[in-house]
Specification:
The structure holds two protein chains of two kinds. Chain A is of the alpha/beta class. Helices cover 37% and strands 20% of the residues of chain A. The N and C termini of chain A lie far apart (44 Å). By secondary structure, chain B is α/β, with parallel strands linked by helices.
Chain lengths: 325, 349
């Protein structure tokens, strides 16, 4: 075990995967000599060389298109999109191509690609360095969507992603890249997809969240505990595949749910979770499902703390759920 | 009313052909003609079947066959092809089974992709023919990535990326051409300029005089080639492939052809194409031009041409009969191949 931050754990996971398999390579903007703008690829260029840690021209569609071509041949490219806000030029390559190659070729052309990208607000990044676009991608069949919230999961889920024969979008909570540090297993460490983590146990209300909202939910749970409400924090870890069983088990226990994400509310990932609860947990629910999310506006610069779900808003929603039944 | 322009003959001497195509030039030209014959027969039959409601869609390649056959004659079995809509003949001429292709056109259960794509979007990994989407241009940057992988693994193969004049406006042409040149990737960018993006003529697609000159902006050589001349196509493509294979870098070839049929079975070109344009296209029919050359050289006559046509007709009819008798995709195939593991087929090699 080593004490690492999330960004250090990602860096460690990348380096170990590259040492283990010469087919793994990294490409993106500023990932080479500079080590990435968040330093996630620090040291890789020096250790593995410019042919394996590729500073690409500034074109996201080129990066993902090229990564697809590498994977069609049999390599295992890890493409970095510098901020997920810049992923849209590559949306076509991801949605029309990457996600559909295996299906449309009857399995002849799988795409062993990982796309890593920092997402989310809280760093004073304004409209274009703060977004949470996970719902667009979770909506696309053929893509897996993964969001860690701890250093150990960051390495473990990334290692699983790198070994997964299908495309994985690995969204990194940049707000807590360095805010959270924790014990990370040395050597190969895999966290399976589709297994949610109970970040905190509780019996009165379930907080469903992922990524940078996990520490916020945990903080809310501490506040609630002071007034006698025990909140269970469920860290989904992977949005696709989704661990329905863990969600349903928690809700069966608590009967109340608050769904939390940074992305806008309308058609956000929380809407899918709410639908799941309506379909499969209806008779366990004691209160209406609550959502605490970003607002249905673009992501603001000066007012980001108003926009982002806060512990206070989560506490308020949880109390409303408890009061309702 | 003036007479339509006469067919522009291919005017090559035996010595010139030997110089341009190598010592087996006569065998190459006869093989090319036979593949082009098959393509003509296939286009005619499949458009008719589409009209009869027996297949759902068809994208003919009439007028563009010399580019596909020239490509097949210019690369080795380990080279990779990223096609556009009208390059299936490359796969067939490299050994993809006509019957398997027919299963794809009928979208039946024996289609390797289980009928998931519209016809004319086959996937044929056994001949390194990459699955395509209907999105224009995306294959260009993918092909560049594959070419990078070839060099990374020290594989001496090359990649060919096919796309049309319309794709020269699309994001991934520009990204792909730029990445190819920056990476000095072993690839040939093959722009088949058939002068139409459905209804939009090439002069409304670009302000440049040629598409080949777009290579200049990216630092890669661009060359315009008469794509209705099988000799020119093969000679220039072989040079570009040799350059890529030897580490000399990527290049852009613009093959000027005439789209002699509708864009697809869903298109009516009389809405936007003049009779005069089509008359000029007929004067550059790559099939008739090669036929003329073979006759002049004594490599074909009425009897052999008729025999080859009958053979193609018989093989197309036989493939249709097999495919039409095959069952539709099993309902379970709806949800296989979204993710691994697939349905028990061996992993691709």
């Amino acid at each position: 075990m080593t004490e690492l931050t999330i960004v250090q754990a990602i860096n460690r996971g990348l380096a170990e995967a590259m040492r283990a398999d010469p087919d793994v390579l990294v490409l993106g903007e500023d990932v080479g000599v500079n080590g990435g703008v968040f330093r996630a690829t620090e040291g890789l260029h020096k250790e593995f060389g410019a042919d394996r840690v590729i500073d690409t021209p500034l074109s996201e569609t080129g990066i993902i298109g090229a990564a697809i071509g590498m994977a069609l041949y049999g390599l295992k490219p890890i493409a970095e999109i510098q901020f997920v806000d810049f992923i849209y030029p590559a949306f076509d390559q991801i949605v029309s191509e990457l996600a559909k190659f295996r299906y449309r070729s009857g399995g002849q052309y799988p795409c062993h690609v990982v796309i890593r990208s920092p997402y989310g607000g809280g760093i004073k990044g304004g409209l274009y360095h703060s977004q949470s676009p996970e719902a667009y991608f979770a909506h696309t069949a053929g893509l897996k969507v993964v969001i860690p919230s701890t250093p150990s999961d960051a390495k473990g889920l990334l290692t699983t992603a790198i070994h997964d024969p299908d495309p994985v979008l690995f969204l990194e909570p940049k707000r807590i890249y360095r805010a959270v540090s924790g014990e990370v297993p040395d050597g190969e460490h895999r966290v399976p997809f589709g297994e949610a983590r109970i970040a905190r146990e509780g019996s009165d209300v379930t907080l469903l969240a992922y990524g940078a909202m996990i520490p916020t939910c945990t903080q809310a749970a501490e506040t609630l505990a002071a007034s006698g409400v025990q909140a269970e924090v469920v860290d989904l870890r992977t949005l696709v595949p989704l661990d329905e069983a863990a969600i349903l088990a928690s809700v069966e226990k608590t009967g109340r749910v608050v769904i939390v994400h940074e992305a806008p509310r309308f058609c956000g990932y929380g809407a899918e979770l709410a639908a799941l609860l309506a379909e499969k947990a209806f008779f366990s629910l004691k209160a209406p499902v609550q959502r605490v999310t970003g607002y249905d506006t673009p992501f603001p610069y000066a007012l980001e703390n108003l926009y982002l779900p806060s512990a206070e808003r989560i506490v308020h929603a949880a109390r409303a759920a408890v009061a309702a039944g | 009313m003036t007479d339509p322009p006469a067919l522009v003959p291919l005017d090559y001497s035996r010595d010139t052909l030997a110089e341009l195509l190598g010592p087996d030039w006569n065998d190459s030209l006869v093989r090319a003609f036979r593949w082009m014959t098959l393509a003509r027969v296939l286009d005619g039959r499949m458009l008719a079947l589409q009209r009869q409601g027996r297949i759902g869609f068809y994208g003919p390649a009439t007028g563009q066959e010399a580019v596909s056959v020239g490509a097949a004659l210019s690369i080795g079995p380990d080279d990779w092809v990223f096609p556009g809509l009208r390059e299936q003949l490359v796969a067939l001429a490299r050994g993809h089974s006509l019957t398997t292709y027919m299963h794809h056109l009928f979208a039946d259960d024996l289609d390797p992709a289980r009928g998931r794509q519209m016809p004319c979007h086959p996937s044929a990994r056994e001949v390194r023919y990459v699955s395509m989407s209907s999105v224009i241009g995306t294959q260009v940057s993918q092909a560049v990535g594959l070419a990078y992988a070839l060099r990374y693994r020290k594989d001496p193969s090359v990649a060919l990326a096919f796309f049309g004049d319309g794709a020269s406006s699309a994001n991934d042409f520009h990204a792909g051409a730029n990445f190819a040149a920056v990476w000095n990737a072993p690839i040939v960018l093959c722009c088949t300029n058939n002068q139409w993006a459905i209804s939009v003529p090439v002069e409304r697609q670009t302000a440049t005089a040629t598409l080949a000159e777009k290579g200049v902006a990216y630092g890669l050589p661009g060359e315009r080639v008469d794509g209705t001349d099988i000799v020119a196509v093969t000679n220039r493509l072989r040079a570009a492939v040799a350059r890529a294979r030897s580490g000399g870098g990527p290049s852009l070839l613009e093959f000027v052809v005439f789209r002699m049929t509708p864009h697809s079975s869903s298109d009516d070109p009389t809405r936007y194409q003049s009779a005069d344009w089509m008359a000029r296209a007929r004067a550059r029919d790559p099939y008739l031009r090669l036929e003329g050359l073979l006759r002049t050289l004594g490599l074909a006559d009425d009897a052999s041409i008729s025999t080859w046509r009958e053979e193609s007709d018989a093989s197309v009819r036989a493939a249709i009969a097999v495919a039409e008798a095959a069952p539709g995709p099993a309902p379970e195939s709806l949800s296989t191949d979204v993710f691994a593991p697939n349905d028990g087929r061996p992993a691709p090699s």
